[in-house]
Amino acid sequence: MKVIEHLERAKNPLFSYEIVPPPRGRTVQDVVDVVKKLAPFDPPWIDVTAHSAGAYYSEKSDGSIERKVFKKRPGTIGICGIIQNRFKIDTVVHLLCHGFTKEETEDALIELGYLGVENVLALRGDGLNYDKKISTGRSLNKYASELVEQVVALRSGQYTSDLSEAQPIDFCVGVAGYPEKHFEAPNLAIDIQNLKKKVDAGADYVTTQMFYNNDHFFHFVEECRKAGIKVPIIPGLKIIKSLSQLRTIPRNFYINFPDDFVAEMMENPDHAKEIGLAHTCKQVEGLLNKGVPGVHFYIMNDADRVIDVVKKFR
Ligand code: FAD
């Protein structure tokens, strides 16, 4: 079923989860175990992240440097297939502009259609650290709005090349939103204008970047509504479990922590896990009180901690 149908039919706010494929060389069992833990909590859908290839360098025994380009975490489509078909839980596949031609994206969408996946989160990605060669006759999506257009075009059977008797593929499309603005955008207003381009291109809903101060989310939603964005906006949360994340999360995701939360964590480093969990619970309570359609948890394959949160609100 599509995310948008889940949202329309829901009698209570929905709790959804985001997992990452295992690193290259590991088995899929770790992810299967995570899904097994989440399944009793009836997840309406599970997102599976996407990863473009990167360049990695290693020193050989003769002192020369070897460069290899590969994906550290392949397997997004396969994992969606497992969750969708073995566990009968709907999946949202993340698809990226960066690192993929439109033609490769189309191939992925065809495979996903065969697997019964009905939901796509259309993302730009964060640039490549190598020069991907694009052969003649192939093309790229630059921004997520263009990827939305490509996925939406399939609803009316428009593929990247003219095909006779082409069948439509009907995906529900989500896009990313940033309550504290995307790091490249000059300000929130311009970022929201760009978000509106994605919605105008046919996106059905928005999932937000993580945030730790609900006021950022409420302000963002208000500004989106003023800008004419009418689709559901689902808040994204991530539970903090260590003091070091107070540095790594702002560096990687360009978000801020509230002063009182930082102070509490720094004064009680041995209780970082409990404080992080309590903060997320407080955020969920505040969001539910304001009538959000659901909460999306970035779990990084740590199911136990999110289950502690979800149990409190069921
Ligand atoms: P876009 O919507 O294309 O926006 C990127 C920037 O360009 C913004 O600053 C925007 O304001 C600006 N912009 C957009 N359109 C235009 C335009 N027409 N003209 C000028 N400027 C424009 N990354 C991964 O690699 N894999 C994942 O699985 C993944 N999952 C994510 C899930 C969520 C919910 C979120 C919030 C992010 C996720 N990301 C993921 C990170 C994402 O790829 C990065 O944040 C990326 O930098 C931007 O992606 P986007 O889709 O928001 O880009």
Explain the overall architecture.
With 314 residues, the chain is an alpha/beta fold. The protein has a single domain (3-311), classed as Alpha-Beta Barrel (TIM Barrel), CATH 3.20.20. Helices cover 40% and strands 18% of the residues. The protein has eleven helices and ten strands. It has helices spanning 3-9, 29-38, 76-86, 102-115, 144-153, 188-200, 214-226, 245-253, 259-267, 272-289, 303-313; strands spanning 14-19, 45-48, 54-59, 65-70, 90-96, 119-123, 172-177, 205-210, 233-237, 294-298. The strands form two sheets. The chain has an eight-stranded parallel barrel with strand order 1-2-5-6-7-8-9-10, surrounded by five helices. Strand 5 (90-96), helix 4 (102-115) and strand 6 form a beta-alpha-beta unit. Helix 3 (76-86) runs parallel beside helix 4 and helix 9 (259-267) packs antiparallel against helix 10 (272-289). The longest helix has 18 residues, at 272-289. The radius of gyration is 20 Å and the shape is globular. The two termini are 22 Å apart. The mean pLDDT is 97.
